Amino acid sequence: MVLAGAGGAVGAQLAFRLAAEGTEQRMIVPGRGQEPSLPDGSPLPDSETIVLGHTPGRPELATALEGAETLVIAGAAHRDPDPFALIRAAAELGVGRILHLSHIGASEQAVAMAARRQWLVEQEVRASGATWTILQCSILFGALVRSVHDDVLRAPAGHGRAAAVSNADVADAVTAVLLDERVHVHDRVTYRITGPTALSGPEIAAALSVTIGRVVRYEPVAARDLYSTPIPWVRDLDAWISCCAAVDAGVYEQVSDAVPALAGRPARAFWRWLDDYPVEWLHLGDSRDSGTAM
After folding, report:
1. 17, 89, 90, 232: most buried, per Cβ within 10 A?
2. pLDDT given for residue 127 in this prediction
3. Model-level pTM?
């Protein structure tokens, strides 16, 4: 199995799950040191690492995909290999199965820029000739936390709600699809992967307030104002604004039962994820032990 995007938020968790199941995997990462590893720094069992940049050549792609029966595209960040190149090389080399992590709302006229690009990738996957499964994922919980600075969640998302999801739940759903012994049950199926509740900005802020022991507030802003006072932690302002606009338009509001159906357990609530993964929000600081009142 070839896992592209193995260094990403979902890809890394997926790599650990596959290793725990004894699955042989070839992990594709954009640079050395970005591959998942055991706590002592040793490689995951039954794994090898291939380093590919965003525009790999045909020989590099052939090496990465040689002998593979399954290709998982778990990341399409700017440093990850071009997914179109991966899919076309997989078709040429006879890779029989492709599993692609896409975005909810993917369509030709999608509100979010990332969803428009993912729609194009989806079309490439469907036309590849391989057996395929597509998992359209909601916004990850980690993205919500990273949008908080100076105790303010400031975003042009209006009063929209998003059924955001844990990256661990996405990884569990993907693992269930990949290792399902029922032949062909997931062939040519598109799943929507969401959390259990559609959260508003104030609800996200309230959950974070309880967790970090300080008041976090949600501040809706107009997109046009962000161009005059840009947000320094956002790499691609246009893409981020379009994602927030999709939240405001209700694109991410619908809750799906795919995680319970695939993983065999309920999807994690946001507050539960905050409890389970403190490393994800420690950069915000925690005043609960210092006696600071909310």
Report:
1. 90
2. 97
3. 0.94
